[in-house]
């Protein structure tokens, strides 16, 4: 069973956060998403291992993106309630390791669509699917 089968809802929740920032910030590019995902992967991987995460210096738009994605991750970990009218079904609490797997899956997708379609290739691709 693939990650899409077990955690499709988590992947969709995180991608919704990405799309919401993209729709507010037309200057967002795939590279911003990659850097933000790398930072969050490090945060949750360090947590799972009991280590301190690296320090990332994110730009303003990357920080906004990180906050939106981290809100979803924290919600899915069972640590936070969502505010601001954000809807996300919670069927089960997942682990930091599972969050890392989901973030890595999205990171691979960003790489793929960026190579195929250019600097906003991933953002344009997922925008077609998120309403």
Verbal overview:
This protein has 131 residues and is mainly alpha-helical. It has helices at residues 3-24, 30-49, 60-76, 96-117, 121-127. α1 crosses α4 (96-117) and α4 (96-117) packs across α5. The model has no long low-confidence stretch (mean pLDDT 89).
Mind sketching the topology for me?
Blueprint: H1 3-24, H2 30-49, H3 60-76, H4 96-117, H5 121-127
Helix pairs in contact: 1-3, 1-4, 2-3, 2-4, 4-5
| Radius of gyration from CA coordinates | 14 Å
Q: Overall mean pLDDT score?
A: 89
Compressed to H and E, one letter per element, the order equals HHHHH
User: Residue ranges: pLDDT <50 for 5 or more in a row?
Assistant: none
State the secondary-structure class: mainly alpha
Number of helical segments with 4 or more residues: 5
Please name the defining characteristics of this protein.
single chain; globular; 5 helices; mainly alpha
Brief digest:
It contains 5 helices and no strands.
